[in-house]
Amino acid sequence: MGKWTSHAGMILGLLVFLGGGVPMEEGRVVSAAQPPDAQETADRDKILHSPRWRRMQESLAQWLEVQKIYTAAEVAQLKAGLKKQIAAMSATELADFLVDTEERLAVLLSDQAHEARLYLDVLNQRARRRLVAPDGQVPNVFKMSAGQLREELQKFRDKRAVQAQAYAQSRRAQQERVARRADLMKQQEEAREETRREDRERAIWERERAAERAAAEAARRGQAFSQYAPLNQRRQWYISPWGVFYY
After folding, report:
1. How far is the CA of 214 from the CAs of 199, 206, 207, in angstroms?
2. pLDDT for 86-114, tens place per residue?
3. Rounded distance, CA 109 to CA 65, Å?
4. Which letter does DSSP use for residue 245 in this model?
5. Nearest to 44 by CA among 88, 107, 110
6. Confidence at 136, pLDDT banded by 50, 70, 90
7. DSSP string of 170-191?
8. pLDDT given at position 16
9. Is the pLDDT assigned to residue 179 strictly greater than 60?
10. CA–CA separation, 98 vs 235, rounded Å?
11. Beta-carbon count within 10 A of 56 CB
């Protein structure tokens, strides 16, 4: 019996040696794994050095270059916050962060977001700030889900549509006011021109009537005194500034 026990111990020792120190647990062999910290580090490094993570970083850099929400100081603060946040993540959290960030960036670099940036680009800094942070607090897009970002973009588009409609109505009302004012001025000018024309015609008519009366009066006087006028004397007639003939 002692010899059998000794041989069994030798066989068990040989198996342990060949297996690299693999322990037995409840009748099964447990593989020799790296320590938890080392395995976690390896899993993190695998994610951080993956092509997928690199593509996410490139998309993030592209968005930070074109975004119209944050100032340069806020971008630096955002980067520092992300770096600190990533450094504290486990491998599982990193994997979830990668998926979430890819979805966020897909929204932030979409055509709808590009349309919003084009509008923000024409505004000055103060107007842009009032629009993106009406309460004075700029939102952190990395604390929002892709669905929330899409919802905010839709709200922004709806708000722009209302503003565009209001602006178009205001513009039409202004154009109508300008057109009415121009029509009124034209009517007034036409009325003044008509008054001037009537005044000219009245003045001409009055001068003609005055000339006719003067001619009639001159004829009457000429007939009355022609018998006393010397035959060789020529009568000279004059006309006053008011159109009256006299001699």
Report:
1. 22, 12, 10
2. 999 999 999 999 999 999 999 999 999 99
3. 11
4. E
5. 88
6. confident
7. HHHHHHHHHHHHHHHHHHHHHH
8. 31
9. yes
10. 120
11. 18
Residue 199 has which token pair? 């005044």
| Res. 51: pLDDT tops 90 | yes
Is residue 243 within 8 Å of 210, Cβ to Cβ? Answer: yes
Q: Is 101 buried (19+), middle (13-18) or exposed (0-12) by CB count in 10 A?
A: buried
> How far apart, in whole angstroms, are the C-alpha atoms of residue 37 and residue 119?
49
Rounded CA-CA distance 85/170 in Å is 48
Tokens of 54: 């690199």
In contact, 146 and 97? CB cutoff 8 Å: no
**217 close to 205: Cβ distance less than 8 angstroms:** no
Which amino acid, residue 186? Answer: K
Contact between residue 247 and residue 238 where contact means Cβ atoms under 8 Å apart: yes
pLDDT in tens, 7-44: 433 333 322 323 333 333 343 333 345 556 899 999 99
Host H or E run for residue 239: strand 238-239
Q: How many CB atoms lie within 10 A of CB 98?
A: 19
**Cα-only R_g, the chain:** 51
pTM: 0.54
